[in-house]
Automatic annotation (TrEMBL):
It holds the Pfam family MMR_HSR1. GO terms for molecular function: GTP binding. It comes from the Eukaryota. Residues 1-47 are annotated as: Disordered. Residues 11-42 have a biased composition (Polar residues). Residues 87-206 form the G domain. This is G domain-containing protein. Signal peptide: none annotated.
Amino acid sequence: MGQQCCGGQLEPNSSLNDQRTKQPKNTLNQSENHYYNSSLNNKKQEDIKSDGIKEAEIKSKGNQKSSSYNDSNNNQFAMQLEDKSYIVLVGQSGVGKDALIELMTLKGLEINISRNSKDNEPKIKEGILGEEYVIVDTPSFQLDDEIDKREAVIKEFQEYFEVPKQISSIGVVVNFERTDIMKKKVTSVLKYLRKFKNIISIIVVNMELSENEEEDKNHLRNSFKHMECNKIIFINKYMNQEEILEQFMQITPKEKTKIDFTDTIFEKPNITEEENFLKMLNEHFSNLRQP
């Protein structure tokens, strides 16, 4: 277990997909209905104007309420629990992150609602494992997919880590199967996170499918060694929380690493650079239109 290995975070289980963050509903005064009521035919124009102002005020308060809810949620995820070690789980779709999250029976699983995120976009979740770990469940790492999916995942990472986080470990989750397929899945994630390879470990799940578990563990340690990850650990579906905690202790160093996405795909673009680029494009197309 302690050997070094390759290097390269979880997707919510269908049971977890039903957990939705409920935002407060705006209770708005529907005064528009009154405008069309026949009883208002004799109402003075000043009264109608007054009703319109009241309606606008109520709508404004409703929007402020919704905004303050999102701000509160963002603040919750911006703050870190100093006495906990944060483990960020990443991985492709279908590698068994959902099942792993369910197996860990996390406490207080919360969904991070980004400021500009839409309901159908992937979300980051946090939950507490045991007494010392916060597990960060990230969206499927499908960065080689179409641009919309790729940008949604990148935006979620950017907003979660907008306030710098101290992370103990990044775990690349991969399901046990043919070694060459496992390598491909790990590499597809690792290539975007090589900057953090010293805190990256591989978490192999579904080890109950192995016919000779110890032999396969040794084979996988050797197969992933060239990736220069921190460690490799193995999880099977029959493990209880205490046994999973023992495995996670192996990939959690005492020191924490501040996550800085500079020079990675998750780096936020410089606004000034973007503006200059757009200005250059506009000038270019303006010149093309000139006779």
